[in-house]
Design a protein that fits this description.
single chain; alpha+beta; two-stranded antiparallel ribbon; two-stranded antiparallel sheet; 5 helices; 4 strands
Length: about 130
Amino acid sequence: MPTRTIVQEYCDVCFAEQNEKEVPATDKIRFAWQGRDLLLLACEKHADPIRNELQRLSELASPEVGGRRVSQAARQQRAGSAGGPAAKTLFSQLSDDEKLRFRQWADMPNARRIGDARVREWIEAGRP
């Protein structure tokens, strides 16, 4: 005998806060909290406010990289003060010829990261 199972999902927020047991869920919001992956079912009324709050909190939070927390200051320094894409370094803006001359002047033939302060010194020295 064939059977049919109908699964109806209801808003977790309405159920928990307002004791309304049968408000249909329209969205599934997945997030992680304290090492656990969670799923929250939300109705139209609650989905956007929950997403907005999670977005706001995620912008305040610092990611954990390799078991270590990366501070907001470090993230902003990497991304530039506007919070947009990573800012270009002074060294990266030099032409290939200038980069060669800088490396010879600074005695940094293999350096992978070159600070803006050191490049400014070279520029102030007349780009020898």
